[in-house]
Amino acid sequence: MDFKDIVGQEVLIQSLQNAIRENMVANAYIFNGPTGSGKKTVAEIFARAINCRDIKYRPCNLCSSCKKTISKSNPDIIYIKPSGNSIKIDQVRHIIGDTSIKPYESSFRVTIIENGDKLTPESQDAFLKTLEEPEKNNIFILLTENYNSLLPTIISRCQVFNFLRINGEKMRLFLSNHGFVNADEIEFAIANSDGIIGRAIEILKSKDFRQHPKEYGELLEIIQEGSREEIFRLSESLVQNKEDGAKLLRFLLSFFRDILILKDVEDIEYIINQDINPNIIKGYSENFGEENLFYIIDLIKQIIRSMDFNVNMKNSVDSLLLRILEVCNDKGSRSTV
Fold first, then answer.
1. Least confident of 14-18, 22-26, 251-255
2. Which residue of 9, 129, 289, 325 is 20 to 30 Å from 15, comparing CA positions?
C-alpha cells in the first residue's frame, strides 16, 4: 500500500508528501481519528517514505529500507503499544533512552506510538521533556482517537492531522476497486461504517457480517414492552466499553433508517437489518411516525459525533434508549441527549 491507495484524506496526504519533498519533516506528529480511519496505515507509509533511498519516488517500495519497513524488520521503525490499559512511564523512558542513539541504518528513527491518548499523566510529563529538547534524527508519530486528552504542551509541539470520515461515493468506489463486488453487501457495509473505511472492510470480511447479536433484537423488543429495568439490565451487558457502545449505536442508526425506508416503500426487501424478527420491525413501523424517526436518528447521530470526545458511553446509550422508550410510549419531550 502506498500514499496513492489512501482514500478520502487527500489534503492530509498532500501535506505529508510536501514535507518529505521539501525536507521539512517535523519532529512530532499526531494522527487523530477513529479506529479504522487509516491512521496506522498512513503512519507506516510516512515512516517508509521518510527513510526511502530513492530520490524521486518516496516511498519507492523497492529499496532495502522500504522492503525492511514493509516486512516490519527495519530496526529504525519502532512501535509502542499500551501495556494493559495505558502506556506507562517505563515504556516512555525506554523511548527516551533510544533517542540518544543514532539510527542503525536509516536517516531517521521513527517511533509510532499506538493509542497515544493512553499515555498516563506521568508518561506524558516524561515524553514532553523529549519533545522540548528533541534529539536529531528522531520523529514521533502519536496515533490517537481523542488527542485532547493529551497535555496542551504536547499538542503544541506536534503537527496535528485529523483523519476525516469518508463519504459514501468515495467509499463505494474504493470497495469496488478492491475486490468487493456484491452491491448490496457494499451498501450494507457503508451504512454501518460511519464513514470509516477500515470498519467497512471489516464488515465485508466478516463471515456473518449481516448477523447482529441476538440481544439487539431482544433490546428492541424490551423497548416495545416498556420495561425500564430490563432496558438497563440488557444495556449493562451490551455496553462493556466504548467500542461496544459504538457498535450498538451504528446498529440503532441503521435500524431506524430501515424503519424510515419502510414508511415509504413498505417492502422488507429494501432494508438492511433483515435478521431482526419481522414482528419487531412491523411493530416499530406501525408505532413510529416519520417525525419521531427523524428525531431518534438525530439523537443517535449526536452521540456518534460526541464519541471522539471523553463522553461516558454507557450513560449516553442509556439516555438514548430511554428517549426511544419515551417516544415509543408517546411521552417523550424533544430535548437533546
1. 251-255
2. 129
CATH number of 211-328: 1.20.272.10
Q: What is the DSSP letter of 272?
A: S
**Whether residue 238 has pLDDT greater than 80:** yes
Those residues whose C-beta lies under 8 Å from the C-beta of residue 201, and which sit 6 or more positions away, are: 36, 175, 178, 189
CA–CA gap between residue 314 and residue 236 (Å, rounded) = 8
- pLDDT per position as a tens digit, 34-86: 888 899 999 999 999 999 999 888 999 999 999 999 999 999 999 999 888 88
Domains of the chain, by residue range, sit at 3-162, 166-208, 211-328
Cell numbers that stand for 15 in this block: 501535506
Are 92 and 125 contacting, i.e. CB atoms less than 8 angstroms apart? no
What is the arithmetic mean of pLDDT over 183-200? 81
pTM for the predicted model, two decimal places: 0.69
Rounded CA-CA distance 154/128 in Å is 6
C-alpha cell at 250: 451504528
Query: What are the CA-CA distances from residue 117 to residues 20, 41, 114, 181 (Å)?
Result: 26, 18, 8, 37
- Tell me, what's the pLDDT at 337? 43
**Fold category of 3-162 in CATH:** Rossmann fold (3.40.50)
Please, which residues have CB within 8 angstroms of residue 75's CB and are 6 or more apart in sequence?
Answer: 104, 105
Distance CA(50)–CA(255), nearest Å, equals 45
Q: What Å distances lie between residue 211 and 17, 137, 207, CA to CA?
A: 41, 49, 9
Cβ-Cβ contacts under 8 Å for 176 (sequence gap 6 or more): 186
Written as nine digits, the cell of 96 is 527516551
